[in-house]
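Narrative summary of target 7.
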Amino acid sequence: MRNVVKIPLIFILLILIYFLFTTGSSYTGQHQTNETKNQVAQEAIKQYNIVKRNGPGIEASLHAGFVAEAFLQIGDKENYTKWIKIKEQEERDAKNANVNLP
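Modeled conformation, tokenized:
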């Protein structure tokens, strides 16, 4: 009788262990993916700042657009909206500097 009870308990324990390991690794993988995407956005900001040092122009506008796209990929609506506004301002600055925009 004891062996009959042990088999289902062992089976249930194995299922619980499997569930815990697969769920935990999924969370960790998702966290790492979000962290990587955030790093991509931060790198895009660094590149924008490098280009911006050269003054207003189409390149600054393009890079601001790249930053906005990076935040869009993350799903960060607030920063996406912020960088779209920066992109639009860079376009206006480029027009005021008599830079031909496509």
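The CA atoms of residues 68 and 80 lie 5 Å apart.
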